[in-house]
Write a structure and sequence with these properties.
By secondary structure, the chain is an alpha/beta fold. It has eleven helices and 14 strands.
């Protein structure tokens, strides 16, 4: 029993969630790396809506709840049946140790995990059924919505994969069976860990970050197994942390949130040169690559401005000649 998702109405069974080709990942709304004003957040979300984006992904982790607050404030003004929203479980937000609930940290106390927000709370890993239910309830309170469509177990590969599989996934299956969420999945950075989760539970979705891209494809049978089990892949990290985000690849490009190694810089430049010979920019090919695999039901990317939203939407709609993909395949840069 999988509440299948699709990019085309009815293509994967009745009642499927319609994610569309392009989704918006809202870590940036949580002030990832740099602060964003409320007005810029609202304008960016409005641009996404105007571009036809109807799938929005968030998490308590993103800005200690700030992303959920901002996203919910926007979506509450939209018809509920017209959008799909996912959030994540596995990290609870708890009061900061040594600080009472009535106290507020000073602005000098910033979140240590990359979000430019006051350290008003701390993250506590919790894969138990009780913790997951509490996480969903608290997310709904921050969002101001009655329900989320999709719940992902977040980053189990970074903490306790066995605990996530043995406790978290059965808890999510139970929530789905009770109708509290329509679909369940995992959000991971490891294709190997994702495969373990797909084998262990009846998942509707895998949100795979940066592992199935134009730059690299996992040497594990994850994608084929997802097809076999009817599990859709939401492809995220299509730009590999920025390495594939520009046609001219700079020396200081990032990969996996750090400095890209020399060999990957050269590979990205090789990809860019081939793209240019077919009149296509590297970011356009990078964004569209994932959807060529039958397991991939959506590509979700982040944005921190209306301009970035428009750029992503334009690239997703662009025509890419089939000959380009054939060239990549002939050169062994992507699977045939």
């Amino acid at each position: 029993m999988s509440a299948h998702t699709s990019t085309d109405a009815g293509s994967r069974g009745p009642g499927s969630l319609q994610l569309g080709k392009l989704g918006y990942g809202t870590a940036g709304l949580g002030n990832l790396y740099r602060a964003m004003t409320d007005s810029t957040a609202a304008a960016t979300l409005e641009a996404a809506w105007d571009a036809g984006i109807r799938y929005f992904d968030t998490a308590p982790h993103y800005g200690l709840g700030l992303s959920e607050h901002r996203l919910g404030a926007f979506l509450r003004g939209k018809p509920r049946q017209e959008f799909v929203i996912s959030t994540k479980v596995g990290r609870l937000l708890a009061p900061k140790q040594g600080v009472t609930a009535a106290e507020t940290p000073t602005d000098n106390e910033r979140d240590p995990e990359g979000f430019d927000v006051p350290a008003a709370s701390r993250r506590v890993w919790d894969f138990t059924e009780r913790g997951i239910r509490q996480s969903i309830e608290e997310s709904l309170e921050r969002l101001g919505l009655d329900a989320v469509d999709i719940a992902y177990l977040h980053d189990a590969d970074m903490h306790d994969l066995a605990g996530g599989i043995n406790e978290g996934l059965p808890a999510l299956e139970k929530l789905r069976s009770e109708g509290l969420v329509r679909a369940i999945g995992v959000g991971l950075n490891s294709a190997e860990a994702a495969l373990e989760c797909v084998e262990a539970a009846d998942l509707d979705l895998v949100m795979l970050a940066g592992r199935y891209t134009l730059l690299e494809q996992p040497q594990v049978p994850l994608m084929e197994r997802c097809i076999g089990k009817g599990t859709g892949v939401v492809n995220v990290g299509a730009y590999n942390s920025g390495l594939l985000a520009r046609q001219d690849v700079p020396d200081d490009a990032h990969y996996n949130y750090g400095q890209a190694p020399h060999e990957l810089l050269e590979r990205a430049r090789q990809l860019a040169a081939i793209c240019a010979s077919y009149g296509v920019e590297l970011p356009t090919a990078a964004l569209q690559f994932g959807l060529r695999h039958p397991a991939v039901v959506n590509v979700t990317v982040g944005a921190t401005s209306p301009g970035q939203i428009l750029d992503n939407a334009t690239r997703m709609a662009e025509e890419v000649p089939e000959e380009l993909w054939s060239e990549f395949s002939r050169r062994g840069l992507i699977p045939s």
